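Quick one, tokens below. Sequence please?
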């Protein structure tokens, strides 16, 4: 079975065309999951390939929506251009799929999604960074990005419009991230809300287990 393939992308920000290594879906095998549903992969880690970064301007986003993102408004475009130019001065992106390079790409996607006011995807970008730091055995860096992810999930829940189908996932992460960070009362509050409103969702099923673990500990 083949593991990798190359996909051609056109940057929606600068128009540059480039190719990127991707992982075949069938090559991904999950052995288990951590408390926050972080997958433990058997062989290839698709998280290292998930963010697409334009090598010309550093515009970055998840592969599934890289080419479909719309940059609306002159002010948004100017702000994004300025931030990406600053990022290019500070970091160098290599054509490698390593944990260090993946962290850089997720950080860049966090910048892009923040400018575009897509807080859920900022939160997911930070969560993935935390997960990679976990794999690298860097708990302090992991904690820092778990806290950032939690803050973005909180702001997304409070201030943004979102699909009803997204709410179980948002409530689960508000619960589990508070649990990991030691905020027991907050974790319990979000789990109760998840179970009270979305009892039949898959996130509620896992959330119920986490809530029981919290009550026993």
């Amino acid at each position: 079975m083949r593991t990798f393939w190359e996909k051609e992308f056109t940057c929606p920000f600068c128009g540059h065309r480039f190719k990127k290594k991707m992982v075949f879906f069938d090559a991904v095998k999950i052995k288990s999951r951590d408390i926050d549903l972080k997958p433990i992969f058997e062989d290839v880690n698709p998280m290292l390939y998930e963010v697409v970064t334009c090598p010309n301007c550093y515009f970055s986003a998840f592969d599934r929506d890289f080419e479909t993102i719309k940059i609306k408004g002159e002010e948004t475009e100017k702000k994004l251009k300025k931030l990406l130019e600053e990022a290019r001065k500070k970091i160098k992106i290599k054509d490698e799929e390593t944990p260090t390079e993946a962290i850089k790409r997720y950080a860049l996607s966090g910048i892009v999604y923040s400018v575009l006011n897509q807080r859920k995807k900022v939160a997911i970008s930070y969560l993935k960074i935390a997960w990679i730091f976990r794999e690298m055995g860097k708990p302090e860096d992991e904690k820092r990005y778990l806290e950032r992810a939690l803050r973005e999930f909180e702001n997304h829940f409070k201030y943004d419009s979102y699909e009803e189908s997204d709410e179980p996932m948002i409530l689960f992460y508000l619960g589990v991230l508070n649990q990991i960070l030691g905020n027991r009362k907050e974790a319990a509050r979000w789990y109760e809300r998840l179970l009270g409103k979305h009892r039949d969702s898959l996130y509620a099923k896992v959330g119920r287990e986490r809530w029981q673990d919290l009550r026993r500990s």
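The first helix runs from residue 74 to 90. DSSP finds seven helices and six strands in the chain.
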